[in-house]
Every structure is written in structure tokens, then in C-alpha cells.
């Protein structure tokens, strides 16, 4: 706030508890050159209110008086007003505050309209994107963005959060309900701004710097936030910069995860967190096998179900909750909510004997994730939660729990399978030979085209917008880059 521009002629009175006489408190230096000197006839308005139990009063000149000076006035003021009157200033602020986007900022509005056209005119087949419904959009673009609410429901740093608390609590209970989780056994944090930050919050809460994590290699379809460094050793993601990561990979002939190699690597590397889930893996995950390995090495088993969380909620994919200790997700992919992240963690008594390797793995019979993860999200990594996002997520999660959503997810899978069959009929090569979920990997090298060229052709000659997460596997068998295209089919 630029106080130098604030209203002159406004003074704040402070009543002490012991006295009923307001102590006048001049908030601002009066700027002589702009100040209207007080007409003897001008009356003052007094407004009383209280802040944190302290009675206060505002004294202001009654509107219109300051500019009412004219030569015809019997008692003209000594100087002429140069600032608009209070009502005028109020009207200006109200007018500005109530302007619609096209009026307030036609430039941004016009670009936004173009983007809307782009979204509706093409066929978007990006596995990690979706279209939120109108109710989600309304909650996102709402007054909830105005409120600060650092902390958790019932324990905030700011006052005035009674409704924000209700919204976040409802969002949490809907999140648990959407995945059929018992609130006695699972807790959830809905505040992460993204899934990358959700994952990092898990590592921050559970690990010490330099501790080890292991996830699917990014070029094999994993995600950067599970740890990634280049073949030259350059650490790309923060999860590799602050923790030590070693990836497991897919079998380059079959495209399936090589579980035996994963186990061998995990036995040698002994990560404290073993991560399943990825960005471009078209098949079911063998969570039971991951659990076995995690138990052998005393690791926490975490699943990042970002891509398939909608399918999991609709029971159209196997559930990681049956085997994992921690489950994270984006909220904007198949879940069809606003852009953000979410963390589920086990709580209460451990369901079986687990000797986790974590520095705090003290043989306790209770999970201790809740406090660690909540503390990592805030205050360690984030500030105030985005309440408009949390409300929008609550709206989306309500829909996720309905039979309509299940029907939608079933259709998504059918669409993906229809596209896979059509491509296979045309002799296209799909990695793993097909798909179990909403995405498929199309090996473009058999067409003799680099993926980028192929996409350019699609953009030019078909108004189909198929996209992308192209990656290359450098192998001994195929010395050149092998391009795959990730396609998501989420249209009804
Ligand atoms: C498995 C997985 N985890 C995390 C992310 C990152 O999500 P965000 O963009 O919300 O950080 C993605 C995004 O594609 C993902 O596929």
C-alpha cells in the first residue's frame, strides 16, 4: 500500500480500555500542498468501531464540504481543493473494482478468448490435461482467493477463517470418501499447490537431506519429481539435488517395468522411499510386488497416482491404497479438478509389522506421517493455501464420488482402447502392445519420422491436436532415439 497516496483528512482515534475519550491518532503525514484547509463551517463525521477489542473511531470531513468552496460562499476556504471528494474517490474505486475482465483488461481478455477457441476447436489428446466443469471453474474464480489461511482447519495464523475451515474440512472428507478410505486409517492434505510440491513435501517430511529415493526413470515414463539426473550426471529435479536418487526402468523390449531388476537395484541401493506411479506408463502397476520389495528393504512405499487417480477413484484401475503407505496425486488430470496436488498418508496403528528405515523408524506401532507431512507442506514449503483451489477441488471430488463419474471414466478407457485398436489395425506399434488405462504410447520410429515432425504434420493437415510427452530411450539395441507419443483419450 502506498501510504503517501492515502486519504488525507482522515484521522484515527484510539480509545484506551481505561478511558472513554478517544486518543486522536494521526495515521498519515498531511501533505501541505494538497491539503484543503479546514473551513470553519465544515463538520466532522465520527465513526466508531472496534479492532481486536479496542474501541476505535474515525473522524473524517463530511463529504462535499471540501469542494463546496466557491466565490459565492460566505466563508470561502483559504485554499482551493485539488483532490476529489470522498464520494468521488469511492465511486472511482468501486467502478474500477466492479469492472468485468473485457473492460478492465481487453488485451488479456482477447488472448484468453483465443485460447478458449484453441481449446474447443481442436481435439485435445494430452494425457495430463482435462476440462473442468463449470462449477469447478466458478469456485476457482471466486472471492475465496482473497483470504489468507496459513495453517490447518481449526489452527490458523489468521482470524476470520471459520468458513474456510469448513470448506477445507469438507474437501478432506470428500477426498477420503472419493477413494473409499477409512478416516481412522488415512489422512489427507489438500493444500499442495502442485503434485511436484506434494511429492517434495513427502520427502521433506520423511527424509533427511541426502537420503535415498527410488522411482521409475523419467525416460521410462516416470516423473522428474521422483528424481532425475542426466546421463552426464546433471541433477535436474530438486528431488535429485537434495536427495540421492537411483531409478529403476522399463524393459526396453517389452515396455513393461522390469520388476526383477527393480528389486535387485532396490536391494543394493536401499532407498528409504520406494516410489511407484508415473507419467507415461500405459499398464497396471504391480503394487503387491512393490510392497514386497519395500518390506524387504524397510522402505516407505509411496505411489504418485497423478495420471490415473480418476481411474482409481472410479475403480477402473487397481488401487494403490491397498498396498502403499503414502499416495500423492495431481488433482487436474483424470480426476478432473482444478490444478494442484494432494497427499494421502496412513495414520493410526500400523496394519502389519513394518521396520521402516527412516531415521525416525523407531519400531513404533503407529504411523507418524501425519504431523511430518502437514508440517512439511506448511510451514516448511508453502505459505497460505489457495482456498479457491481447495473449494474447487471439493466440488470436483463430490462429482468423483457419483455413478456419473464412473460412467465417464469407463468411457475414457473405452475411448483409449478404441484408439489403440484402430492404430494397431493400421499396423502402428504401441509400446506394451496396448493400454490398461487412459493413455497409450505410440512408437513413431516405425514410421521413419521423428516425433516432432509427426506432430507438426498432425497440426498442419489434421486439426487433431495429439500430444505429447516425447521421450527418448538410448539403448544398445536401438542406437538412435526412439520416440514415443503419449496420448490421452478423455473425451466422451
Ligand atoms: C506422475 C506425475 N507426478 C507429478 C506430476 C507433476 O504435477 P504438477 O504439474 O502438478 O507438479 C506429473 C505431471 O505430469 C505426473 O505425471
Automatic annotation (TrEMBL):
<dbReference type="InterPro" id="IPR049943">
    <property type="entry name" value="Ser_HO-MeTrfase-like"/>
</dbReference>
<feature type="compositionally biased region" description="Low complexity">
    <location>
        <begin position="8"/>
        <end position="20"/>
    </location>
</feature>
<dbReference type="InterPro" id="IPR019798">
    <property type="entry name" value="Ser_HO-MeTrfase_PLP_BS"/>
</dbReference>
<feature type="region of interest" description="Disordered">
    <location>
        <begin position="1"/>
        <end position="30"/>
    </location>
</feature>
<dbReference type="Pfam" id="PF00464">
    <property type="entry name" value="SHMT"/>
</dbReference>
<keyword id="KW-0663">Pyridoxal phosphate</keyword>
<keyword id="KW-0554">One-carbon metabolism</keyword>
<comment type="similarity">
    <text>Belongs to the SHMT family.</text>
</comment>
<comment type="pathway">
    <text>One-carbon metabolism; tetrahydrofolate interconversion.</text>
</comment>
<dbReference type="InterPro" id="IPR015421">
    <property type="entry name" value="PyrdxlP-dep_Trfase_major"/>
</dbReference>
<keyword id="KW-0808">Transferase</keyword>
<dbReference type="InterPro" id="IPR015424">
    <property type="entry name" value="PyrdxlP-dep_Trfase"/>
</dbReference>
<protein>
    <recommendedName>
        <fullName>Serine hydroxymethyltransferase</fullName>
        <ecNumber>2.1.2.1</ecNumber>
    </recommendedName>
</protein>
<dbReference type="InterPro" id="IPR039429">
    <property type="entry name" value="SHMT-like_dom"/>
</dbReference>
<dbReference type="InterPro" id="IPR001085">
    <property type="entry name" value="Ser_HO-MeTrfase"/>
</dbReference>
<feature type="transmembrane region" description="Helical">
    <location>
        <begin position="453"/>
        <end position="473"/>
    </location>
</feature>
<comment type="function">
    <text>Interconversion of serine and glycine.</text>
</comment>
<feature type="region of interest" description="Disordered">
    <location>
        <begin position="60"/>
        <end position="81"/>
    </location>
</feature>
<keyword id="KW-0812">Transmembrane</keyword>
<keyword id="KW-1133">Transmembrane helix</keyword>
<keyword id="KW-0472">Membrane</keyword>
<dbReference type="InterPro" id="IPR015422">
    <property type="entry name" value="PyrdxlP-dep_Trfase_small"/>
</dbReference>
<feature type="domain" description="Serine hydroxymethyltransferase-like">
    <location>
        <begin position="103"/>
        <end position="453"/>
    </location>
</feature>
Amino acid at each position: 500500500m502506498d501510504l503517501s497516496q492515502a486519504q488525507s483528512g482522515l484521522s484515527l482515534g484510539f480509545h484506551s480500555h481505561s478511558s472513554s475519550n478517544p486518543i486522536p491518532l494521526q495515521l498519515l503525514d498531511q501533505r501541505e500542498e494538497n491539503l484543503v484547509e479546514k473551513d470553519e463551517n465544515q463538520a466532522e463525521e465520527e465513526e466508531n468501531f472496534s479492532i481486536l477489542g479496542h474501541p476505535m473511531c474515525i473522524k473524517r470531513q463530511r463529504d462535499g464540504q471540501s469542494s463546496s468552496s466557491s466565490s459565492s460562499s460566505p466563508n470561502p476556504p483559504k485554499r482551493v481543493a485539488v483532490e476529489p471528494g470522498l464520494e468521488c474517490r469511492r465511486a472511482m474505486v468501486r467502478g474500477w473494482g466492479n469492472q468485468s475482465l473485457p473492460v478492465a483488461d481487453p488485451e488479456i481478455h482477447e488472448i484468453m478468448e483465443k485460447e478458449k477457441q484453441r481449446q474447443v476447436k481442436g481435439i485435445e489428446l494430452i494425457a495430463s490435461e482435462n476440462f473442468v466443469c463449470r462449477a469447478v471453474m466458478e469456485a476457482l474464480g471466486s472471492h475465496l482467493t482473497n483470504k489468507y489461511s496459513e495453517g490447518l482447519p481449526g489452527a490458523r495464523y489468521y482470524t476470520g477463517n471459520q468458513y474456510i475451515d469448513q470448506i477445507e474440512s469438507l474437501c478432506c472428507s470428500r477426498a477420503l470418501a472419493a477413494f473409499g478410505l477409512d478416516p481412522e486409517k488415512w489422512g489427507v492434505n489438500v493444500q499442495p499447490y502442485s503434485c511436484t510440491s506434494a511429492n517434495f513435501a513427502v520427502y521433506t517430511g520423511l527424509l533427511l537431506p541426502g537420503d535415498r529415493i527410488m522411482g521409475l526413470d523419467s525416460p521410462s515414463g516416470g516423473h522428474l519429481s521422483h528424481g532425475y539426473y542426466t546421463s552426464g550426471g546433471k541433477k535436474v529435479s530438486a528431488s535429485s539435488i537434495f536427495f540421492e536418487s537411483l531409478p529403476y526402468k522399463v524393459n526396453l523390449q517389452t515396455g513393461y517395468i522390469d520388476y526383477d531388476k527393480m528389486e535387485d537395484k532396490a536391494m543394493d541401493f536401499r532407498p528409504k522411499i520406494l516410489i511407484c506411479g508415473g507419467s507415461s506408463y500405459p499398464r497396471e502397476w504391480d503394487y503387491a510386488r512393490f510392497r514386497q520389495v519395500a518390506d524387504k528393504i524397510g522402505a516407505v512405499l509411496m505411489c504418485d497416482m497423478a495420471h490415473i487417480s480418476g481411474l482409481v477413484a472410479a475403480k477402473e484401475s487397481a488401487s494403490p491404497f491397498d498396498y502403499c503407505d503414502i499416495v500423492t496425486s495431481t488433482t487436474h488430470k483424470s480426476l478432473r479438478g482444478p490444478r494442484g496436488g494432494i497427499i494421502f498418508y496412513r495414520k493410526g496403528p500400523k496394519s502389519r509389522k513394518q521396520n521402516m528405515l527412516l531415521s525416525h523408524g523407531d519400531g513404533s506401532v503407529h504411523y507418524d506421517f501425519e504431523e511430518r507431512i502437514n508440517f512439511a507442506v506448511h510451514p516448511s514449503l508453502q505459505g497460505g493455501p489457495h482456498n479457491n483451489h481447495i473449494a474447487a477441488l471439493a466440488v470436483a471430488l463430490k462429482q468423483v464420488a457419483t455413478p456419473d463419474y464412473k460412467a465417464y471414466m469407463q468411457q475414457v478407457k473405452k475411448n483409449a482402447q478404441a484408439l489403440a485398436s484402430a492404430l494397431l489395425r493400421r499396423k502402428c506399434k504401441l509400446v506394451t502392445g496396448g493400454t490398461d488405462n487412459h493413455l497409450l504410447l505410440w512408437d513413431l520410429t516405425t514410421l521413419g519420422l521423428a516425433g516432432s515432425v509427426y506432430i507438426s504434420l498432425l497440426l498442419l493437415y489434421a486439426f487433431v491436436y495429439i500430444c505429447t510427452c516425447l521421450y527418448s530411450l538410448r539403448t544398445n539395441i536401438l542406437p538412435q532415439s526412439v520416440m514415443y507419443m503419449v496420448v490421452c483419450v478423455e473425451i466422451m
